[in-house]
Records
---
Amino acid sequence: MTGLRYVYAICRPFPAALSAELTGVAGAPARQVLHEDLVAVVGTVPEEDFAVEPLRGRLRDPEWVGETALAHECVVDALTTVTSPLPLRLATVLRDDAAVRLMMQEGHDRFVRALDRIDGRVEWRVRIYTETGRPAALDGAGPDRAGISGAAAEGRVPENAEEYARHLHDDLSRRAEGACLHPPRNVALPEKSGTNVLDAAYLVPRMKSEEFVERVRRAQHEEGGVRVEFTGPWAAYAFTGESAFAGELAWPACDTTVHHA
C-alpha cells in the first residue's frame, strides 16, 4: 500500500470493526495495524503532503491545522465508543506498516502502562467562568494557583468564584480516578463572556460517568455569578503520559521514518 502512515492512536485489540465510512486526515479511511497485543489505528496519507518538509509548511497554516485536528479527533472519538484509545500526537507520521509495528514493539511497555491507566475510563472537561469582570488575558494577567486563576486577588473577579472553583474541583477530583489542571483560558469570543477561573480534566470510569455528570449538572445551578461548562466523554487525552499531568504523548522516534513535524 503506497503512501505514508498517519497514526491516530494505540489500542488493545477490539472486536468491533471500523466503519468503512470512517475517514480521517486527508479523507483516508481508518484501519488497524496489529502487532502482538497492540493495535495501531492508521490512515494512508500522500507523501507529497506529509513527508517532513511539506508537513512543516502545512503546519504553519492555521486553517489546515484546524481541519487536520478535527479529522484526527473524529477518528479518536469514534474509537472511544468501542475501546479506550491512547491518542497520539497530531501529525505522527511513519513510513509504512512495518514502521508502525516497530513503533509498537519499541514502545510496548510504555504503551501498555498508559493503556492500563485509561482502560475502561473516559475524560470529562470542566470549565468555570465568572460572569463579571474582564477576561484576565485581555490585561496581561497570567494563570496562577496551578490552574485556578489568580484574578480575584487583583479585583477582576469575585472571590466567591475562585473559592467555588476550588471547592468544585476538590469534589470532582474525589469522584474521579485522576484530575489534571490546565492554565485558565481567556479567549475573547463573541459568544463567550467572563473570566475563566477553572479549566480541568477528570479521568472517570465509564460506569461512573452518569454520576459524575449529574454532579456537574447540579453545579451549574449552585453558585450565582459563575457559569459551569463541561464536555465529554472524550478519549483520555490528558492522562496518557508517564504521569497524570502529561498533556500528550511524544514517543521518541523508532527510526528516521517517524516524524512529528
---
Amino acid sequence: MDVVSDAISAVHLGHPWFHRMRTNGTWCARLDPYDGAGFYVVIKGRCWLLTDNSAPVPLGVGDAVLLPHGTGHVIADFPIDPATAKTTAVPFEQSLAQQTEPPTQHDHHETETICGKYWLDCSRMHPLMAELPDIVHLPNRVGSHPELRAAIDLLAGELDEIRCGSCVALPSLLDLLLVYMIRAWMTEAPNGVWPRVLGDPVTAAALRALHSDPAAPWSTDCLAADAGVSRSTLARRFTTLVGRPPMAYLTWWRLIRAATLLRDTQDTLAAIADRVGYRSPYALSHAFQREFGVTPGRYRAQATARSADVGTD
C-alpha cells in the first residue's frame, strides 16, 4: 500500500455514519468533540461553521469540509459568534430530529447538507493524519479537485434515490470521499510537512518501498539503492523531512501494522510477527509492549471493546 492509504487504514474503524440534513429558517446546532473525523458537504443554501479556535467559516453550495480530529463545533445558518453559540446552539441530534421534510418548489431559504462521521482509533495516528488542521475547507471552485467533485455528485445521487446495492455503495463512496478530501488538502497545503515529504522523490521512493513490504529485510543501503541515491543522501533527506531515520520509521511502522492486524484480524501473534518482519512472536511482543505500554493480547482485547462501542453508536 501507499503512505496515504496506510495512514487512513491504520486508524479507520467500521463504517462511517452519515445523514442528509435539511433545515430552513434560523437554526444552530452543536456537536461535542469525539474520537473520529467529521465532514459536511453543502448541497443547497449556505451555512457557517465555528470551532473554539477559528472564525466562522462560510460554506456554500458544493463546499466540502473535513474536521479530521473530531473537533467540537457549531454549525448555523448565520455567521455565529462564540457568545451567541453558547446560548443558541442545540445538540446536533436534536437538530436532526427537527429537520424539515424534503424540499418543495417554495423552499427558497433551505439549507441541505450531507454530514457524517468517520470513526477513528486516535491512539495510533500516523503523523500525516496528525498534521491535518482542525478544519480542512475545500471550496467548490470550477475545475478544482475533479475527483472530489465527482465523488460528491455520486454520493448525492445515491442519497436522492435508494437503489439496489446502496448499502454497499454509500459506505464505499464515503470512504472514497475521505481519501479525496485528504488528497485535496495535500494539494492545497504544499508547505505542509507530509505534502513536502511525499513531494520529495528520494524520501517518497523510500517510503513506497517500506510501505509496500514492511516485512522485508530492509537496510538503509537497500533503501538508498532502491531510491537511486547514496546511503548518506537518503539518511539525511529522510531524517530531515520525516523527523526520524529510515530504520527508526520502519520499526515504528511495523508496530503500527501489528496493532492494526491485532485489531482487524484473528491472526495468531506468530503469524502477525511474520507479516510485519519480526523473527519471533516473543520479539514482537517485547517491542510492542515497549511502544504501546501493553501486551499484544491486552491491546487486542481493548481494540475489540472499542470496535464494539463504535458498532453501537
---
Amino acid sequence: MKKLLALLLTLGAALTATAQTKGIKIAYIDMEYILDKVPSYAETKSQLEQRAAKWKQELDAKKNEITRLKESLQTEKPLLTKELIEEREEEIAQQEKDMSEFQEKKFGPKGELITQKAVLVKPIQDQVFTIVQEISATRKLDFVFDRSSDLTMLFAAKKHDLSDLIVKRMSRAAKQEKLNSKQAKKLEEQEKQDELDSDPEVADRKKALEEKKAARQKALEERKAAAEAKRQEAKEKREQQIKERQEARNNAKTAKPAAKPATTGGTTPAGGKDDINSTDDETPDAPATTGKQATDKPAQSTTAKPAGATAEDREAARKAVIEERNRKIKERQEALAKKKEQAQAKRDSITKAREDAKKPKPTTTDGGSLNDKD
C-alpha cells in the first residue's frame, strides 16, 4: 500500500510538472455517479437488490436452522447415545457446508450477484468510454481518470469533472431515436452549448457573474429587512403611545368621586342591585331603619366625603362600599341556605311520619295486637 501511494504521488508530481511545461490537460469521471443517474441501470439495479435481499433471507434461514440444531443437541446431549450425537453432528456439519456453498454461489467473488452486476454495467461502461473519447478529442484532453476506481485521487477540482456532461449525452442519445431531423438539430445545438458551459474557463466566468448577482440580491434583501424593522419599530411605538393614553383615561375615570349616598335609610348607594332584588325574608338580621333611627345611625356604606378628598380617599371609599355590599350579599346567601335546610328537614320529618303511619302494626298469634294488655 505504501509503495502504491508513493507511486501515485510520484506520478502526480510528474504529471503536474509536465502540465506546467507542456500544458497537459487532465479531467476525470465518477463511474458510480454516472451509473446512478442512468434510469435503465437504476431499474435493473433495484431488481438485482431485491434478488440479493431474497438470497440473504434464505441464507439467514439456514443460519438460524443450524443454530437451532446446535442448541437442541447441546440440550439433549446428556440423554443421547454416542451414535445419535455423532449423527446429529454430521447433520449440522452438512448443513454448514451447504450454507457456505450457497453463500459462495450467491455472494462470492464469482457469484451470481457480482456476475449479474458486471453484465448490467458492461453496456453502460462501453457507452461511457465512447463518450469520453469524443470529449477528449474535442477538448484535447491528455488524461481522463475514473474517480471511483482503485486509483486513489488525492485531490480533484470539480471543474474538471465530466460526469454530468456524460450523463446528459447518454440521456440525449436515448431520446435521439425518437426525434425528427429538426428536433435532432436543436438537440445538437443544445449539446454544444452545454459543452461550452461545462468548460472550466466559461464556468469560472459564469460563477463570477452569479456571485455578483448573489451579492446584489443579498444587499437588496438586507435593505428590505432594515426597512421592515424600522416600520415594525414605528408601529410598536404607536401602539405603546395608544396604550399609555388608554391607561391614562382609565385612571382618570377611576379617580372620579364615588356614587352619592342614598337619602333614605337602610339602603345601599345608588346603583346597587342587591337591595332592589332582596326581600325581608332574606335579611332577617338587617331590618330597615327609618325615621329617627336612620338619622341617628346612617348606613356604613354611605359616609360622606369631604369636598377636598384625594383620589386615594375616593378609591378607598369605593372599595369600602363594594366590601360592605359583598358582605351583605354573603350574609343573605347564608341565611337563605339555612332556611332551605330547615324547610327540607321539616319536609323529610313529615314524610317519614306519614310512612310510619301507613305501616301495619305487628299482631300476636291469636289476632290481637302486641300492644294490647291482658
